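User:
Hi there, any thoughts?
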Amino acid sequence: MSFTEAVLSVFSKYAVFSGRAGRPEFWWFALFNVIASLVLAVLDKFLFGYEILGAIYGLAVLLPGLGVAVRRLHDIGRSGWWLLVGIIPLVGWIVLLVWYLSRGTPGSNEYGAPA
C-alpha cells in the first residue's frame, strides 16, 4: 500500500470502527499526520501567532485517527477498547506502540479478512 492509498483509505473510512487495518495503512497515516501538523504549525506561527489551523485539523482527523487505530488493533486480534490502555502514562503508550508494530493475525479473525 502506498502513502497516497493509505491516506485515502483512512479518509474514505472516516468513522468506520469495524474491519482491519494493516501496518502500512496505519503508519502511512501517522506519517501524514506528523507532516500535516508540522506544516500547519509553521503556517499558524506566521499567519496568526497562535494555533488555529492545527486545532481545526486535529478535530478533523480525530475520528479517522481513532478509526484506523481501532482497525489496527482488530488486525492483531484485539478489541478496540484496548485503545484505553493509552490512558496509562508511558506504560500504556509503550504497550500500544508494540501492538501497532506487531504483525497482524494471518487469515481471517473475528474482525474480518486480512487488510
In short: The two ends are 10 Å apart (CA to CA).
